[in-house]
Amino acid sequence: MSPITNPALNALLAESLDGDGFVLAQVLLRHSTGVAFELRHVADSTTPAAQLRPVKLSELRNLAQFTVAGEFRPLKSAPTLVPGWRALAADPASLESALNQLYPGALVDWFAARHAVPPVTHYREFAGRQTGMYQVTATLDDRRVGEVIAATCAPTACLKRRLWTVEGMAVDPSATKSCIPCLEPCALFLDAARRAARRDSVLAVPPANALG
Length: 212
Ligand code: SF4
Known about the structure:
Layout lengths: L6 H8 L7 E3 L2 E6 L2 E7 L11 E2 L5 H4 L21 E5 L2 H11 L3 H7 L10 H6 L13 H11 L8 E2 L18 E2 L4 H17 L9
Parallel strand pairs: 4-5, 6-7
Antiparallel strand pairs: 1-2, 2-3, 3-5
Helix pairs in contact: 1-4, 6-7
Bound molecules: iron/sulfur cluster (SF4).
Iron/sulfur cluster binds next to α7.
């Protein structure tokens, strides 16, 4: 087996993958007899392997695209990953590829968040560098940003633990979310913030008959 040069993968492999295994959002990783690693939905942790649908690693990206009801999952960290499957990774590189299909970028972000000072970009800095149609997101005040966070980043909508914030709002407590950190607002959040800012600017325009 070739040496592993990815420090994030090395750190993951240093976690205990024996016994109860390691849970990354809704995916349970374990060492498996005969192969290197097994991945399955955490809700299936005690289900006999024979009762789970075998899924090839190359099928994981597609598996992560849709909910049980067949709806598209625009946010891969939404708590809607389908259960009932089992995938096997023969080596660390295959494990990394599998995780990136299920949770793109999560391994690298998880590793980055273990540093003493995680590379977090808070809302003001993030909104301040937007251009074009997203420039308007900088006009939302902290209270409105908090409302968009409550609607978009709630544990029922996203399992990433939000480490960025605005003045007066706490980051996500670790117990309410998964170990995957959210280091800056995602594209879905940015669009929700843009729509909120656009709504506010429309409401701020007085009706024509109020202009005297
Ligand atoms: S901004 Fe982060 S926490 Fe909020 S929905 Fe996007 S990924 Fe999840």
